[in-house]
Amino acid sequence: MNDEKYCLGCGVKLQDENVLSEGYTTSLDKDYCQRCFRIKNYGEYQVVTKSNDEYIEILKSVGETKDLVLYITDLLNLEEDLKRIRDIIPNKMILVLNKKDVLPKSVKDEKIIEYFNKYDNEFSKVVVISSEKNYNIDYLLKQIKLYQTTNNVYVVGHTNAGKSTLINKLLRNYSTSDRELTISPLPSTTLNTVKIEINEYLTLIDTPGLLDSGSIVNYINDDDFKKINPKKEIKPKTFQVKKGQSIIVDKFFRIDYVEGEKNSFTFYVSNNLKVRRISSKHDDLKDLQKRTYEMGYNEDLCVNGLGFIKMVNKGTVNIYLDSRVSTYKRDNLI
Questions:
Q1: Rounded to whole angstroms, how far apart are CA atoms 23 and 252?
Q2: Which end of the chain, N or C, is less packed with Cβ atoms under 10 Å?
Q3: Torsion of CA 311, 314, 318, 324, to 10 degrees
Q4: Which residues are CB-contacts of 258 (< 8 A; sequence separation ≥ 6)?
């Protein structure tokens, strides 16, 4: 007989012997580990560091099934390489673009989906949703029914993409269960696979989020995280920029416009961040690591975990920020 019991919040094996180890609970009769209980009831977050190697092994095991997979990603902070998870998991896969509510309402779903046409052969379907606002959740469920191969459907993605929030929304909308996954805005909340039965034909299996070492989220405190993490629709800030001018984004990074014709820089970042223009002669934030980009026409410069800057004309820019935070170029998303 198997007496092992697993936390309903994060999926880790429960134990009552070592208070410092993951899965600790004061009683094995309880359904949640102490960590999940404290996140759920008091908003107290305790970091648990696991390596991506462990998480990748879990994703590989998903790839050994024939089950449908939902790949959840954050529209404001899309991964540089969406094929990384796709290359690990060969299953049928729906790309779920979450957090539509933080992008301007003027941005149409069709425009976003068109951007992902280049992944035509990679994903069975691309769906734009907002778990927070319950937007397009009915439509997503219809697509799940259309593409699922068994009752089991896996949910994968990077940390902070909104996987657990989506599952909880599906639970509340379509299940009579009062169960709820543990949600925290910080990485590594889900530690193992967690099975959640929505109804008689759908069981979702949540997986731990892949950690992104290049995200600024890993290197800031709780107050700064609340500042950079938008909770409502972003109001883009647009600047007409000439050579020799710079834009400072709060205390996090600066961009110098080094060479090129007059340009338009639009910042898609949290409304809580102060964005201002200065002369490049000023030394603000120049102690941070400098990177140089040759921007082409209609390209975005993405700052991992913070958002992106839409540029219109080609030109040379220097960006100064924490050396651990990754940046990359892409075609304009919007």
A1: 35
A2: N
A3: 60
A4: 243, 280, 292, 315, 316, 317, 318
CA distance 319 to 255: 4
Residue 202, beta-bridge partner list: 199
Residue ranges, CATH 3.40.50.300, the chain: 47-212
Cα–Cα distance measured from residue 209 to residue 213, given in angstroms and rounded to the nearest whole number: 12
Q: Where are the beta strands (DSSP E) in the chain?
A: 68-74, 93-98, 125-128, 152-157, 194-199, 202-206, 237-241, 245-249, 253-259, 263-268, 275-279, 289-295, 299-303, 307-311, 315-321, 327-331
Expressed in angstroms, the distance from the first to the final Cα of the chain is: 55
CA–CA separation, 221 vs 46, rounded Å? 13
47-212 — its CATH code?
3.40.50.300
Over residues 26-40, the pLDDT tens digits come to 888 888 787 777 766
Of 69, 131, 67, 112, residue with least CA distance to 94: 69
Backbone angles phi, psi at 272, to 5 degrees: -75, -10
Give the number of residues written for the chain.
334
Q: What is the DSSP letter of 307?
A: E
* Secondary structure of residue 56 in the 3-state scheme: helix
pTM of the model: 0.81
Tokens of 313: 């004309």
Q: What are phi and psi of 299, to 5 degrees?
A: -125, 150
